[in-house]
Write the C-alpha cells for this entry.
Amino acid sequence: MIETPDIPFSRPCFLGPELDYVRQAVESGGTLAGGGLFNKTCERILGERLGSPALLTTSGTHALELAAMLLDLKDGDEIIAPSFTFVSSVNAFLLRGARPRFVDNDRFGNIDLDQVEAAITPKTRAVAVVHYAGNSCDMERLAKICRARGVALVEDAAQSLGARYSGKPLGTFGAFGCVSFHDTKNLTCGEGGALIVNDRDKLARAEILREKGTNRSQFLQGLVDKYTWIDVGSSYVLSELNAAYLLAQLERIDAITEARGKIWKRYREELAASARGLGAELLDTPPGCTPNYHAFGIVFASPGVRAKFIAHMKSRGVTTPFHYVALHTSPYGKKFLMGKESLANCMRLSDGLVRLPIFHGLGDDEQTYIIKEIRNFADKRA
Ligand SMILES: Cc1ncc(COP(=O)(O)O)c(C=O)c1O
C-alpha cells in the first residue's frame, strides 16, 4: 500500500547555521534584548541591499504600525488599500484613527492603480500598497500618482523581500517599506519584521517610536548621556535571539530565493496544461517584476471546483489553502464600505485562489507527488 504523505503548505526556513548564531548570542554574555551585534548586522545587510536604512521590528504588523504612526494620522483621515490583503495592511492605520477605503486588486493580486487614482480625495493621507506573493503593481506609476496628489506611499512588503520592480527592490519606492519575517515568509526568525525608512527625515523619529517613545537608541550610540521620554511610542525592538536566527538567512537570501524559484518554475511548466484543462489560471509574474517566488497560486473560476480541489489534495496528504477572505466582506471590514466599490478581481481571488506548497527544503520527490495529484484531479474532471 502507498503511504499518504503529509506535505504542509509551508515549513519555516531552517538552514542550520541559525543555531550557531543563536548559541553565539547566548554565550557572548551580551544583551539578548535589541540593539546588539546581531540586530546591527542584520540592519546593516538589509540597509546595504536596499539602499535605505532598515530597523528590525517585532513583526511585519509592527513595522506597518510604526509607518502609520510616522504619518501622524488623525481622525477623519483616509487611507487607500486593496480589499484582498492581510488585516494588518489596514489595521495599522485604523489604530491611528484613519478610515480605510477599499479598492480592487489587479489580476495578479496587487492593487488596481486606476481605482487608486479615482479613490483619492482631499481626505486621503496614504496609499497602502501590498506586494502580493512577492510581486508588485507598476510601482513607478503608483509613486508618480502619490507624488502628484500629495499622498504618502507605504509599502506592505511583508511578502516581498528580495523581489524587484524595474530592477529596484520592493520596499524602497514609498516613504516606508514594511517587511515580515513571520515563519511563513521566505526568510524567517519565527516572528519579526523590518521598517525600511526611505524618507530619511523620519529615521530619527522612527527609532524613538520603536523604543517606547524614548531616545534610548541615541543613548546606546553615546549621543546623549541619559535617555528619556520624548514622544509617543511602543515596544517594537527585535530580540537579539531572533536577530541571530535571522542573520543566518539574510546572509543566504539569494540562495533561498533561487531555491524557491526552482520550485516555482517547475510548477509553472508542469501545471500549465492541467490548469488550462480545469479552466483555471496560474498566478503569473506581472510585467516589470523580478519575483522572490513567495507564493504559487492557481485561480479557479468557481469556489465549488476550488473546494473539490482542496478536498482532493487533502485526501492525498497535501495542504493547499486558499488565501484572504476579502476584507470588505468580513464582519469588521463591512462597515467601511462606501457603497460604490467595484471589487470584482478581489472577489475572484478571494473565491478562487489556492496556494501550492512552496518552501525552502520542499523535496523534488514531494513536488513530483504534488504535481501528479494535481494532474490526476484535472484528468478526472476532463
Ligand atoms: C501582506 C501582509 N501584510 C502584513 C503581514 C503581517 O506580518 P506579520 O505576520 O509579521 O505581522 C503579512 C504576514 O502574514 C502579510 O502577508
Notes: The longest strand covers residues 124-130. Residues 172 and 198 are 6 Å apart (CA to CA). The pocket of pyridoxal-5'-phosphate is lined by residues 59-61, 85-86, 88-89, 130, 156, 158-159, 180, 182, 193 (CB under 6 Å). DSSP finds 13 helices and 13 strands in the chain.
